[in-house]
Structures are given as C-alpha cells and as structure tokens.
Amino acid sequence: MFVQRGSSRSRVAVAGALSVGLVFGLSACGDSSETDSGTTGSSAAAIDCTPYTAFGDIKGKTVTIYTGIVTPEDAPHKESYKPFEQCTGATIKYEGDKAFETQVLIRAEAGNPPDLAFVPQPGLLQRLVATGKAKEAPAETAANVDKHFGKDWKAYGTVDGKFYAAPLGANVKSLVWYSPKEFKDSGYAVPTTLAELKTLSDKMVADGKKPWCAGIASGEATGWPLTDWMEDFFLRLSGPEAYDKWVKHEIPFNGPEATAALDAVGAYLKNDAYVNGGLGDVKSIAGTTFQDAGLPILDDQCSLHRQASFYAANFPKGKTVAEDGDVFAFYLPGETADSKPVLGGGEFVVAFADRPEVKAFQTYLSSDTWANAKAKLSSGWVSANKGLDPNNLTNPVDKLSAEILLDPNATFRFDGSDMMPAAVGSNAFWKQTTNWITGQDTKKTLDNIESAWPK
C-alpha cells in the first residue's frame, strides 16, 4: 500500500485499490505509462468545433499531459480527448505516473515540464507556480471557468491574483452512508439539518441500536478520516471564511472555532451510546481500518458512516449502491436546510507552455462539452462544471455527488489538511486526532497541533 503524505489522491488510492471504477484511485498502484490518447472499443461523439478555430490551424501538433491517473483509470480520460483530436487534427500524448506529485516538481524545476499537468492539490499548484515555469490560463479557458464553475473553484486555481488552473474532476467528502432498507423499515427520514441528524441518532439509540460506525486506521496515514470529520464540522459551525483563515493559519489551529468543531465531532465519535456499531467501543475506532469501517451497515450492526464518495468502492461485489439498493449515501447536512457547505477534493489543469494547441486543449477541458463527454465514459467520476448534465453520469453515487456540487447553495471547500504544511496536515493533525479518539482531551490535542505549525 502506497500512501503519499498530504495528498487527497493518495487517500482515495488506498480505497480505490478495491475497485477499478474510480478516476481518483490507483495513482499509487500503477507504473508510469506514456501513450497517445487513442483507445479501442468506442467512437467519439461529434462536437461543435467552433471554439477551437480561434487558435488557428493546429493540425499535426502534439500536446503532452502528465498526471497521476494511471491504468486503468486513464482509459476514459484518453477516450474523452478524441472529439478534440477529430476537431483540430492535434494529438494528445498522455503520461500517467504513480510518482507524479514528486516528479512534476522535479521536472518543472529542471526546465523539462510537460505541456499540461493535472494537479490534485492547490498547494502543489502554488509550488509549481513558484518555479516560474507555469503559464497563466488563456482568456478562453478563464471565460469557461467563469461561466461553468463557482468562484470558490476558480479561487483554488488562482495564485497571487493570477488565474492558472481550471478545475477538472471533483470528489465529495460530505456524505453519510446508510441502508435505504433500514430507513424504510424503521421509518427514518434522511436529515436535512445538523439538528435533525442528532435527533435521528438519538432515535436509533432509543431503538436499541449503535447508530454510528467509524474507523481511522490507514497505515502511516492513520487518523486522516478524523481530519475530514473535523473539517466538515468546522465548515458547518463557523463558515467558509473562518475555515479559509484556519487553513492558512490566519487564526490559530487551537482557537474557539476549531475547539467547537472537534467537540462537535466528539459528540458523535466519543459518545459510547453512538459508536462503534458492530466493531467495538470508542477506542476501537483507532484500530479499525477506514476500508472496513462502513461495512457493518450491510449486517444491520450500524446505521450511519461518514465517508467520501469514493467509499462506494469498498462495498463487496453483489451489493447494490443506489438509492433503492443495499447501501447509499446522503449529504451531511448543514446547520440549516439552505446552507450547503461541501468538503471535497479535485484536480486542476496547469500549463507550462502557451502554444496555440495547448491553449486550445485547456479550453476544451474547461468546457461543458468535455465534462459531459467524460461523464458518459466513466464510473466514479464527477465534476463541479455547472454545464454537466447529471443524467450523463453512469452511477447513482456520481449523480448524488453532482447534485451536491451543482446545488446553487453549495459552498465548496478543499480538504484542509491537504493544504496545510506537511508537518501539520499529514503529521500532527493525523497523529493528535488519533490520540484524541483514544482518550486525549480536545485542548491538548489542538494545542499540540498548533505547536507543530511551522514558525
């Protein structure tokens, strides 16, 4: 098992090892491969070629892409480039590499970058821009992003006031997994507010159940699921502006906002009446792998499990993941039914060349045309592109994720630990919250993480 510190992609890769269906999986599990984009077995749909004529005649030109998305998840990506190739006569050369996050920096600093890179973290984008090799996105790409994405997404592709990278794919972490059959048989309703979630949990306890199950074991990355829990509750209790300040350390890690968030998590995960259904007591959370943590839902031993969209890959074959299936998910609600904070991750397209063919392909990838073409080819992939038709998505979890991301009230925020310095986000934050779930108090936990922040 490969885990690269500080990477939301690596977390998905661990889960994705159980399934070939996730675009965000397996970047850590395959070899580097370099191919042209052609794949067999389907033909590209015709698209309107007009947007690409503005870049002139690019027939015979080649655009290189470097990414951590490797075989087999690369196949639908490469297939989705065919309409652009047919329109323009250009060729897209794709290179996937399990060591992408390290090697892309080395290549940029050495003056040998690709034309385009798919970057899974805003922090890595900032480091690439700091090399001086990244190029600002063309006006046509920026116009697409202004039209099809929210300001929150554009901000993550912006460094020092300059826009570099359009969003590509996305994942949603603000989900709670449950059994539709149990909810129907027991008369439970999907909660629409945090208060309703608490009431539901209490009702399940009254019915003789341990409603929640959880697990945070993940090798050297043990603890990361708790960071997601805390970030979700920080967003809900203190709002996105305070969250942004916290992530940037403009307010202390151990301030009142963070204290409220971790205590709110504790009201669920350190509550003996609520956890750990089918797995043990509160301390069993630390020793349960995150892959196994939600499986007791299938045996009616627990009812609720908070985990990201990619968790769908962990349910066994033969189990239906759907609204009327064996297991499904609902949005982790906000304080009110109208507030829609969304925690998640995603990828961004940054260029290191400004040739016409590169600009044209950047523009294609930022369009609703590409988002819909890609949606028809992939399972386990979604985008926050507002032009995406959810009906083009191929599985129920993808559709649910798209509905959440595309909700007009949604406010998206990137996984905070992935944007913090490694000493915090992929070290102290993981380790200290693990200590917290096994008995350490909130104050000491947050003080220790605050002390780890680089001076």
UniProtKB/TrEMBL annotation:
Keyword annotations: Signal, Transport
Keyword DNA-binding applies: no
Lineage: Bacteria, Bacillati, Actinomycetota, Actinomycetes, Micromonosporales
Residues spanning the signal sequence: 1-28
Domain of life where this protein originates: Bacteria
Family statement drawn from the similarity comment of this UniProt entry: Belongs to the bacterial solute-binding protein 1 family.
Protein name, as recorded: Carbohydrate ABC transporter substrate-binding protein, CUT1 family
Keyword Magnesium: no
